[in-house]
Write a structure and sequence with these properties.
This protein is of the alpha/beta class. 34% of the residues lie in helices and 24% in strands. It has a six-stranded mixed β-sheet, sandwiched between helices. Strands 2-1-4 form a three-stranded antiparallel β-sheet, with helices on one face. β6, α5 and β7 form a beta-alpha-beta unit. The longest helix is centred in the C-terminal third of the chain and has 16 residues. It starts with 9 loop residues before the first strand and ends in a 5-residue tail after the last helix.
Length: 240
Amino acid sequence: MHAGFSDLPIRFDDVSLRAGALAIIDRISLTIAPGAPTLFVGPNGSGKSTLIRLGMGLVEPSSGGMTWGGRERNDSTRRAMVFQRPVMLRRSAADNVGYALSSRGLRRNDYRECITSLLERVGLSHLADRPARRLSGGEQQRLALARALGRDPEVLFLDEPTASLDPAAIKAVEDIVRATAASGVKVVMATHDLGQARRIAGDVVFLVRGRVCEHATAEKFFASPTTKEAAAFVRGDLVI
């Protein structure tokens, strides 16, 4: 982990994001604190992915304010993100990781050792020389995680990282996510999969129509949701 300043907590203060008259995110106030993974859950179109992008600093709110570790400036290199469909460079798996490391100014020997370590961490060391675009979907997602971890982040944002993957690939990604969280990295993840939220979340932020409908520990959210929308979602009912 880096020394010095921290990006945590991340605070959303009455944040909205609009596209014309449509409120994609509607007056959200939320604190993302250090600790176990925070998962954003909710029906499709509820604003999960947009909230991830706001937290990462990829988009700016239409109104309201955000701070990272008490700072308003969004110029940190201590955050990393993995998208649902990551783009692979036309290079080997090792070179994809190497590209992510290029901004860290590592010495040559440390650079090679770091690539090896990261590929081992995600179970891809045996595929180091394979073109990244020839990897399976699950392998590409694990490679995207290795690239993100190569930034040595304090906060790792994940936007539906296991969507469309088979069960074995989902387990492999979830194992990496849990190990990453256990190492002290704050994981913030969007998912529509309630089973996944049960397996990973420390706390759950439940979104409906761009608003936070409920925010609670995972245990409390699944055992005794306090809103009718959350209760319906946990039962598996449609929430519109």
